[in-house]
Structures are given as structure tokens and as C-alpha cells.
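Hi support team,

I've been running sequence recovery on a batch of backbones for a student project. Most finish fine, but this one hangs at about 90% for roughly twenty minutes before it completes. I'm not sure whether the input is malformed or the queue is just slow. I've pasted the C-alpha cells below so you can try to reproduce it. Let me know if you need the job ID as well.

Thanks,
M.K.
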């Protein structure tokens, strides 16, 4: 007879097999799925790690790739979001270094600046601070901003 723990493990394994998830997401799902009964959620998460359904490294790589390419987030915002999910900082930094090419990073930042410039008045004395606040909100650091803004006649 299959126990609730076995059923929850199967459901969690299926959930992890469909797309990359981190342990905190899986814990939240398991808490939701278990209902009123108490099940050792940590044991299920440990088993998912042992059987490679969960991997912090894989999750970080997928998250970094998606948020940079599709959401146009900078490294600071990506790092903050991953740290909020309680992932290992070494895995985060490795994923950031492997997945984001510095040249591509500056090109993305330049495109974002160019798009924002179209919405601002060229003679605005607050132009640079406004641009920086915009890109900082997207997670780009000041040094990268300085490099990217050199390309524009501001």
C-alpha cells in the first residue's frame, strides 16, 4: 500500500521532471499538497536531491539564462532573486560567470539604455541619474552602466 509520503514523492518528482525547480519551491508545493497530515518534507527533498531531480547548480544555470535573455535582468537582480530562494552563493556565482558573457551583458545594457532614451527628453538635466535608476532597477551595476553609456553622446 502506497503511503502519503510515497504519493507526495512521486508528485514532487513529476513536478521536478517537467522543469527546473529549487528546493524552496518544492518545499512550498509539498507543504501545500500534504494538507492536514504531517509528512517529513525534508526527507522527500533529500531523496529528490539524491536521485538528481533537484540540483542547485542546474537550477541556477537555468534561472540565470532565462532571466538574462528573456527578462533582461542584470547580475545584481538575478543574484538577489537566487539568494532569496536560499540557494548556495557559490552555485549562483558560477552560473552568473558561465551563462553571462561580459560583451553580451554590455550589449544588453546598451539596448536597454537606448530604449529608455527614447522616452526621455535629451535636454533633461537629470538624464543620467534617470537612466541609472532605470538600469539599477533592472539589476545592472554602476561600473557596467558607465561602460555602456560611453557609447552614447550624453
Amino acid at each position: 500500500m502506497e503511503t502519503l509520503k510515497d504519493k507526495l514523492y512521486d508528485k514532487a518528482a513529476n513536478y521536478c521532471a517537467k522543469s527546473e525547480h529549487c528546493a524552496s519551491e518544492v518545499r512550498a508545493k509539498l507543504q501545500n499538497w500534504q494538507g492536514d497530515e504531517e509528512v517529513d518534507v525534508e526527507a522527500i527533498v533529500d531523496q529528490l536531491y539524491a536521485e538528481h531531480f533537484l540540483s542547485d547548480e542546474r537550477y541556477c544555470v537555468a534561472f540565470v539564462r532565462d532571466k538574462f535573455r528573456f527578462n533582461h535582468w542584470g547580475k545584481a537582480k538575478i543574484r538577489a532573486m537566487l539568494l532569496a530562494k536560499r540557494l548556495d552563493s557559490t552555485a549562483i556565482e558560477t552560473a552568473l560567470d558561465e551563462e553571462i558573457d561580459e560583451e553580451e551583458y554590455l550589449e544588453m545594457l546598451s539596448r536597454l539604455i537606448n530604449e529608455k532614451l527614447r522616452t526621455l527628453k535629451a535636454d533633461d538635466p537629470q538624464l543620467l541619474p534617470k537612466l541609472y535608476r532605470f538600469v539599477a532597477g533592472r539589476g545592472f551595476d554602476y561600473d557596467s552602466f558607465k561602460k555602456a553609456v560611453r557609447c552614447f553622446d550624453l
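--
Follow-up from support: It reproduced on our side and the slowdown came from queue contention, not your input. The longest helix spans residues 102-117. No action needed from you.
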